[in-house]
Amino acid sequence: MTKYEFLEKMRHALANDLSGPVVQENVNYYDNYISDEVRNGRSETAVIEELGDPWALARTIIESLGKGESTGNVQEEYTYGSGHQAYRQRQGGRQIRVFSLGSWWKRLLLVLGIVGVIMVVAAVIGGIFSLLAPILVPFLIIVFVLRIIDRNRWR
Questions:
Q1: Residue 25: phi, psi to the nearest 5?
Q2: Cα(65)–Cα(93) distance, rounded to whole angstroms?
Q3: What is the predicted pLDDT for the residue at 24?
Q4: Which of 91, 97, 93 is nearest to 75 (CA)?
């Protein structure tokens, strides 16, 4: 998804529930954020993936503003949060912190995938061992007994 597509989806999602100035302020914020990150050397795609789904992000913004505060009487003061995954919005005297659907779920999927691969490898090795054990154990016992007999014969 490009920056333009991301911002248009966000604009459309926010426009259903928020006033024009609030929508524009949020779109401007994410436009500036993406541009700043690209200027810092990150790819546009990576930044947009980190932000997550624009519809889910818009829903989080709308829920944080509440129904009565969607009229545009919110004092907008945006600052980047730690790890570029949060923003702060000042309303009256209180401050709201909204987190995007960043890449935590991707990390979780990666860890679960690695654990799954390890389990599959262990199951395959265990299955091979369980198939070969009935054949190899008697064979090894016979070889061991023959060696003992062979040693005793030469003494």
A1: -65, -45
A2: 14
A3: 86
A4: 91
Distances (CA, A) of 120 to 105, 114, 126, 130, 133: 22, 10, 10, 15, 20
Q: Is the pTM of this model over 0.70?
A: no
Cβ-Cβ contacts under 8 Å for 75 (sequence gap 6 or more): 90, 91, 92
Give the model's pLDDT for residue 120. 96
Exposure on the CB side of residue 95, measured as CA atoms within 13 A? 8
* Pairwise CA distance, residues 41 & 106, whole Å: 22
Least Cα distance to 96 among 115, 111, 75, 114 occurs for: 75
pLDDT at 77: 47
* Rounded alpha-carbon distances, angstroms, from residue 115 to 41, 110, 120: 33, 9, 9
pLDDT tens across 55-109, in order? 888 888 888 777 544 444 444 444 444 444 444 444 444 444 444 444 677 788 8
Q: How far apart are CA 124 and CA 62, in angstroms?
A: 49
109 burial (CB, 10 Å; 0-12 / 13-18 / 19+) is: exposed
